[in-house]
């Protein structure tokens, strides 16, 4: 069993930056593909960024060039560095871990971009 705990959300002005962290408990973190998803009010949850166990990354078009996903397998942690934030980035951000048929979700952290 893996538990994921996100942190780092908050209120930021447009153009600002935040770094989200997701720390995993349990074994085998390095073998999991890790991702960040977000869900805005009234919208479906969408993929923001993903990083494979080997370190390859993929991003939603809406965040390319602004967000960076990374992982530290020694700390069992995945990060999402978010720069040049826009009001439309406002959402609850969820951490996700996948390995074969196993999928785990964190509880979510709120990101609000507003002046």
Question: Any chance you could write out the topology, listing elements then pairs?
Answer:
Elements: E1 3-7, E2 10-12, E3 18-25, E4 33-39, E5 46-51, E6 57-59, E7 67-72, E8 77-82, E9 91-99, E10 102-105, E11 109-113
Parallel strand pairs: 2-11
Antiparallel strand pairs: 1-3, 3-8, 4-5, 4-9, 5-6, 7-8, 9-10, 9-11
Task: Explain how this protein is built.
This protein is mostly beta strands and 115 residues long. Helix content is 0%, strand content 54%. It contains no helices and eleven strands. It has strands at 3-7, 10-12, 18-25, 33-39, 46-51, 57-59, 67-72, 77-82, 91-99, 102-105, 109-113. The strands form two sheets. Strands 2, 4, 5, 6, 9, 10 and 11 form a seven-stranded mixed beta sheet that branches. Strand 9 and strand 10 form a beta hairpin. The radius of gyration is 13 Å and the shape is globular. The chain starts with a strand and ends with a strand. 30% of the residues are buried. The model has no long low-confidence stretch (mean pLDDT 96).
